[in-house]
Every structure is written in structure tokens, then in C-alpha cells.
Amino acid sequence: MAVLFDLDGTILGSYRDKNEVRNECVRKYGVQEIDKEKYFDVLNEVLHNSKVEDREPIFRRFIGDEELSGIVAEEYEERSLENAFVYPDAEEVLSKIKSKKGIVTNGPRLTQWGKIRKFELEKYFDSIVVSGEVGKSKPGKEIFQIALRSLKATTGESLYVGNVPHLDVKGAENVGLVSVLIDRDGNFEDSEKVNPKPDYIIGDLRELYGIVDTEEIS
């Protein structure tokens, strides 16, 4: 059995709203604020089956100038990292679940590895797959298959935990994994309205103890 996790919003949170931090950075350099939904649309478009090192190509879509985009991206990177934290339930669960564990995350290579290394998350995982590093992204099944091959695990005995239905639940569904939606803010209390519908909805990662075989918990 293997348990795969998303990173942002599942294992890591942010002390400040990321959209506010992002717009503080762009305003500092006289750039118009970026709409949250448009930012994530561009983010997913840039990351789609592409190797991406950092956020510069994402900001370039809004700013145009490559040099300024790089400056804004670097500042946002630093401030995002300053505001990141590991959810307390994540630390406990990652320590207690004995199954093989992996991270499958969308994001630029340097961005995601910067967070992983800051919090020394490597010690918990047997496989870490970053979309910007492998050139495959969620919800496509290929990025999950890379992780499963690395773990020598099969879909039928494994599950994926994430917080975004159209990326995480859909991705798990595409590859045949059991899907677990982590709903930390109570946004999906009406499970019938969640699309695609996950196999499980939890509000705290410790609820995985009731899903994972008890033999896999220390």
C-alpha cells in the first residue's frame, strides 16, 4: 500500500493569503494587480506537461518584461516561503503512517523543492514528484504513474490525498487511485456538490487513520 499526498494546502499552509502577498509584490514594481483565478489559470497552463524551473514564466504572462518578471517572481518566492508552515496534523500523520509515502505536486521545480527542503519533508517520503521537474502535471495520470513506479506500488492498493477537486480528485480518478479530499476550511460540506466526487472527504489528516489499514499506523 502507498499513500500519496499533495503538498500545498494539504501538508503546507500559509500564514497570509497568497493572493494578497502576490499582489503586494507586483504593486511594489508598479504592476497591475493579478486576479487570483486568472493567476491559477495561467499557472496550470504554464505547468501543463512542461518542465518549469521557477515562477518567472508565469509572471511574464502578466508583466511582459522578462527581467521584471524574474524580479517579481523572486520576491514572491521569498515571501511565500517566509509565510509557509507545516500543518500540525500533517507532521503527526506523516510520522505515524508506516506505508510507503509519496508527494505528487504541481509547481515549478525550484519553488516546490524550496518548501520541501525548508521543512525537511524528505525524511517522511519514499518518493517526491514535482510537475515542473518531470514535465507532467495533475490531473494527468502520468505524474501519478511516475510516483507509483518509484514506490513499486499499484493503484488498487494506494490512495491520494489533496485539497483541489479538479486537480487532485480528478487526477486520482484518472489513474485509478482511491481519492481523499482534505477540506480544511469546510468548503465542501455538501459532498453531493463536489465535482468530481471523491471517495472520502476529511477535515483533518488524522482522519486517515480510519481509512488506512490499522497495521500501517504506528
From TrEMBL:
Query: Does the keyword field hold Hydrolase?
Result: yes
Keyword NAD attached = no
What InterPro entries does the entry give? HAD-like_hydrolase, HAD-like_sf, HAD-SF_hydro_IA, HAD_2, HAD_sf
Per the entry, which co-factors are needed? Answer: Mg(2+)
Q: Which domain of life does the UniProt lineage start with?
A: Archaea
Q: Which PANTHER family match?
A: GLYCERALDEHYDE 3-PHOSPHATE PHOSPHATASE, N-ACYLNEURAMINATE-9-PHOSPHATASE
- UniProt similarity note: Belongs to the HAD-like hydrolase superfamily.
Q: What is this protein called?
A: Haloacid dehalogenase
**High-level lineage:** Archaea, Methanobacteriati, Methanobacteriota, candidate division MSBL1
